[in-house]
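seq/struct pair 1
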Amino acid sequence: MKVYDFIESKIKVLNETILNETGSGALRHWIENNYDAVTSCRTTSKAINDPDASAFIKRRAVWYKNIHCRGNKQIVDEENNEVDLPDEIIHYIGNLSPDVDGHDQIDDYKVHFKGFTDDHINDVQNRCQLPHTHPGYLSNYDDIYDEVLSEFIKRENGAQPASAGLAGSDENPIMYAVFHVPVEENEVDAQINEALQTMTFFKNFKI
């Protein structure tokens, strides 16, 4: 599975839950208002070539396609099975704030996230103004999201995320990636033993 192998159903869920709940989704609103359609690989392609679309909308459309599309097709996994993230994960992402930076294990999933405060956004904009030869130079502002996603993947030793994208608001987005990382059996046993030791009856019981 490649980095951008994320599926149509989860994109729809994340758009409808996270983006709607946070009041974000300038690209989604623009597509709805101008094409009377939902955000998809086909409509974002149309927006990229639309002379009436602003530079901001076109950048967001390009980034959407880089993450979610191959050509004009929504990408699915190799087995054509839907990636169904638990509601707990979706709600967790939806409640992240722009000042977060880290990861958290939730059951069999690890969620990596990085928010963009105003200071972070200014730093990224400054990187776009650096000389082309500077190691921190960015040719396009939205390249920062690819950079952050690559860092998430590096932290997981090259594992590919089950889902990734932007939450938060357009002004202060939050980059996230969800990896399927089953908890090791010995870790589960340790957690169970720890819980058992809090109960008097099971003080001398161990798995």
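seq/struct pair 2
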Amino acid sequence: MSTTHKTDRTVKPRKAATKPHGGPRGNMTPAEIKPLLFHARQAFDAQLVAGLIDDGETFNTWRHAQVMAAVGKPGLTACSHEDFRPLRGHFLTLAGRDAAAFKDHMTSGKPTDHAEPGDTFEARRELAWTIAQSLNAHLHLARTTIEAHIAESVHEWDRSNPSQPYPGPDPMWLAGLSHRKSSIEAGGGPLDVGYLVWLTRQKTRRPDLHLGSDWQAGLVERCAVSKLTQIRDTLINRIAAREGLGTAKTRNKKQSRSD
């Protein structure tokens, strides 16, 4: 493995990947796609038994047509988090599981008739996912050794650039990584789910609020979009502070607009 060149290994936002058909790749995760494929297969088999599948139509072509019919996108990899429940409900309906499908359809759209503009289950799930990603990345940084982080960067390079040797970790990236980990340790350790629950109680002014074992689902069920936005912004702010990034003045600019 060559280590003669340096590269910036900091995490940077990426543009949406381009799919072969030319459309953007959505942000639906493999953990969401896998159960949808399972439900889609059950639906296809049920429709096939009922004689509702055209001769010669394959599972793949049928599935893409159903995804387009349900959410207007050409395939599962073009879908986003907000498409998960509508798609699952669609496939459950086609599989004859109406009761389960009804539950999914009822948890799409506005939570109540009096919900604020823009306060939908889909928007809530998107914010809850961002909160989870931020917290998990922070915990991973704190709990993973520098050597393991380097090994991950090698794996990511090899996956993205299979024909090129790994150029080696950037010294500036290593220094930043070490600084962030040291700052977390000096600050008393990483922020965790317990902190998130406390923060949610503060933002919602509900001191007895419980999020349940699936705290991400709990956020979606119990917090409006406006509160989730505040929770997200504050959490990102506090994580940056715990990792020793930026200054209090810079970090608090956005937060002051959210509180």
